[in-house]
Amino acid sequence: MKKCVKCAPLLTLSGTHILQIGPYLxxxxxxxxxxxxxxxRPFRELCLRYGAGMAVSEMMSSNPDLWxxxxxxxxxxxxxxxxxxxxxxxxxxxxxxxxxxxxxVENGAQIIDINMGCPAxxxxxxxxxxxxxxxxxxxxxxxRTVVDAVSVPVTLKTRTGWxxxxxxxxxxxxxxxxxxxxxxxxxxxxxxxxxxxxxxYDYIKAVKAAISIPVIANGDIDSPEKxxxxxxxxxxxxxxIGRPAQGRPWIFREINHYLMTGEYLSSPAMDEVSAxxxxxxxxxHRFYGEYLGLRIAxxxxxxxxxxxxxxVEFRRTFNAIEDASAQLDALQxxxxxxx
Length: 339
Fold this sequence. Notes:
Structural class: alpha/beta
Helix content: 40-55%
Shape: globular
Largest sheet: 8 strands, parallel, barrel
Number of strands: 13
Strand content: 15-25%
Number of helices: 13
Low-confidence stretches: 1-14
Strand order of the largest sheet: 5-6-8-9-10-11-12-13
């Protein structure tokens, strides 16, 4: 088992924790959760710019037959990225997972994250993601094999268990620590819960008390007050934020300011939201090319405008646009009208 090198959290003068994973020190305890189809390079860079301490990439399949597809190639662009490059891998074969980890490191990954938390049916039917929680022996084999395969820190993202009758997160957490995992992100729901109901912070608190490696709390952290509550209640060393950041990348700036000062930061003005969205859409066009970029931009624009009651008809019109320049013109026109 590899030794954990300085993976304990550090306490700052303000009372918040700064997480260190291996040799990598996060600038703050706020991490962008890996989300398939969302946390691509443009979104990660945006969240880092607006206050995230680290961003974890969307999961890469451990199946080498898929590594040369357009989707996988886009997910493997890591060299030259801002911040700490954490890459998530998913699968169920220990050796293939190890090879995926090695391949990711060769392509710029500085931290490898193992996905045992995704509840999606298409992932679970391949015995990947949170489906692995039903098979602790296989979990242990995967963890040990991946940790032994790379020289960079390995982290784990998981859930409280398979279903409400089978919550095994404490045992999984202890196993992870014994296998050399250097930080554990825990989503406070079971696989069966998907994203329904409220996050189970009691289980995150129990896991934190049971292990000595850093614990990262995940689930329903959608405001500065909620962030402080979760940190205080669970004793977690950091927070992982996913869905609340969709269309709101500045949430990291708002939470970090509140944790550091106890004061609320004003929401971004409309002109700043406009600049952020336009820049994001332009970067999607550049990164993916016009055909794919403008299609991916549609969901992000929908998230940005979800709280704009007057944008319902605009979103319908926007989603029918088939030209990248026309997308940008339409967005500029929308904000000029609502200013």
